[in-house]
Amino acid sequence: MRYGRNNELIPVTEAEEAIVGKATMLLDQAIKLGKVEPRYNMYYRKEGIKYRKHRKFRVLDISKDGNDVLFSSSDLLQGKYYTSSRNTRFFLLRKRGRSVQADYTSAQMFSYLDRCSDYLGDIIEMLIEKLKITPPARVRKGYKVVVRDKNGRLRSVYDGSLWTRLRWRNETAKRNAGSGFYYFRNADDAIRSASKIPDWNVKDLVLVEVEAGGAEFRVSENELRCSYLRTTKIVGCIADLQQKVGASAELANSAAQVVSGACSAVV
């Protein structure tokens, strides 16, 4: 195989074409099972110019038997004179009997492994080792805001990566900001933070209970960063929880005013 302009694998021999064909079947199966967002292709006109929006998949690495395949998917917008790409994701598909296991990874991780690899299948082997996460010995309870997509899956509000319930994720938290996973000690602070999250409809945001472990750094009074995190259960929709928090705050203020008035009357 050889690499194309966009780092995708291009088969050279008939045997390699058969392996890539097997990889395509694996992708189709993952889409059918709802583990990968499906393809789409649409055209529209704006100010007399024809545009095309579609999702493109690329094979970036593949095992010798074709049962483990690393893909990327991008949403492309093609105009008359340009093509723009957004929402690029990297994921590893592994055949598991009649099912398919999908594991998403970051662009930074792919870039790092790509620099360390020399032969076909190297990236997949290193990525599988990275996915073998040993759970932390001690865990702490907390809360996190995530977005629920149209298929009901939970995703990060920042990079769109998948949060599978009870599956640990690991990213070493360091002293510099941006590393590790963010979460809150209590639910109220997590709910209030939702108003600062851009680009998402509040109706799609949900509050989840999480377990955290490993190294930990304080971001603010109640916001933390950690190295290990997993979601345990959905608490509720942010829109509904914000109304309850607001109602509780109004009730507390009313009670404080009543107590203050009673004290003034006694004096």
Radius of gyration: 23 Å
Helix content bin:
25-40%
- Biggest sheet, open or closed, and with what strands and sense? 7 strands, antiparallel
Strand content: 35-45%
Number of strands: 14
Mean pLDDT, all residues: 82
The total count of helices amounts to: 5
SSE topology string = EEHEEEEEHHEEEEEHEEH
Structural class per helix/strand content? alpha+beta
What's the overall geometry? globular
Number of domains: 2
Account of the protein in words:
- Strand 13 (205-218) and strand 14 (223-237) form a beta hairpin.
- The chain has 5 helices and 14 strands.
- By secondary structure, the protein is α+β, with helices and mostly antiparallel strands.
- The radius of gyration is 23 Å and the shape is globular.
- The strands form 3 sheets. Strands 8, 9, 10, 11, 12, 13 and 14 form a 7-stranded antiparallel sheet that branches.
- The model is unreliable at 249-267 (pLDDT under 50).
- Helix content is 28%, strand content 39%.
- The chain has helices at 14-32, 107-116, 122-131, 187-193, 238-266, and strands at residues 2-3, 9-10, 41-46, 49-62, 68-78, 83-96, 99-105, 140-148, 154-155, 162-163, 169-170, 181-184, 205-218, 223-237.
- The protein folds into 2 domains: 2-131, no CATH class; 140-247, ADP-ribosylation fold (Alpha-Beta Barrel).
Give the arrangement of secondary structure elements.
Blueprint: E1 2-3, E2 9-10, H1 14-32, E3 41-46, E4 49-62, E5 68-78, E6 83-96, E7 99-105, H2 107-116, H3 122-131, E8 140-148, E9 154-155, E10 162-163, E11 169-170, E12 181-184, H4 187-193, E13 205-218, E14 223-237, H5 238-266
Antiparallel strand pairs: 1-2, 3-4, 4-5, 5-6, 6-7, 8-9, 8-13, 9-10, 11-14, 12-14, 13-14
Helix pairs in contact: 2-3
